[in-house]
Amino acid sequence: MSISIAIVEDEKNYNNALKKVINYQQDMKVIAQFFDGNDALNNLASISPDVVMMDIQLQDMLGIEIILKLRKDMPNTQFIMCTSFEEDEKIFNSLKAGAMGYLVKGESMDKILSSIRDVHNGGAPMSFSIARKVLHHFEKEAPEVKGFDELTEREKEILELLSQGLLYKEIADKKFISMDTVKKHVGNIYRKLHVNNKVEAINKLNQTKN
């Protein structure tokens, strides 16, 4: 089955360029385009695509606001921020809201396409410059780890495998369970650790090892 994608981007030329390149791929298809935030906010949940490419600075609202309002209603959708902004505040607010990826618009289309596939398979794709900022931020901050003791042994095993860079399918194969079961365990991990994405969860795991 192909990966279903929605694009939320008010720059029409970029929105249409993304659609054209994505639809040229055999394993993915754009099922919706939105050119303003309000339209996306009202319609995304009913469409429920696998992946949403989300601009941060829309003319009528922030893409971060849309994710915050829709995240609980779209548990199976992965959000990738695709933006020209590289400020720390916007990066971390996006990740806290539940975005699983963060790409700078200058990235090549090949990088964008591989990021869509990556996030769909349980990855957390980021532009190199963004990944460095995230790692530097976590090196500076080491808050108390809460909720780790609540994890089951299986959840701890899966979190460890996530930290090693394994994708959902690879974890499923390794543990002889279905990918849906892996996703359920990951959802429980996020809830117990009070995090919204894999980057934050792995950071908390690393804190327990220090």
Helix content: 40-55%
Structural class by sheet pairing and helices: alpha/beta
Q: What series of H and E elements makes up the topology?
A: EHEHEHEHEHHHHHH
Parts with pLDDT < 50 across at least 5 consecutive residues: none
Query: Helix tally?
Result: 10
Number of strands: 5
Straight-line distance between termini: 42 Å
Give the overall shape, derived from the CA principal axes: globular
Main beta-sheet annotation = 5 strands, parallel
Modified residues (4-aspartylphosphate): 55
Pfam family, one: GerE
Domain HTH luxR-type: 144-209
Domain Response regulatory: 4-120
Describe what you observe in this structure.
53% of the residues lie in helices and 13% in strands. The protein is built from ten helices and five strands, in the order E-H-E-H-E-H-E-H-E-H-H-H-H-H-H. Strands 2-1-3-4-5 form a five-stranded parallel β-sheet, with helices on both faces. Helix 3 (63-70) links the parallel strand 3 and strand 4. Helix 2 runs parallel beside helix 3 (63-70) and helix 3 (63-70) packs parallel to helix 4. It starts with a strand and ends with a helix.
Short account of what is shown:
The protein has 210 residues and is of the alpha/beta class. The chain contains 10 helices and 5 strands; from the N terminus they run E-H-E-H-E-H-E-H-E-H-H-H-H-H-H.
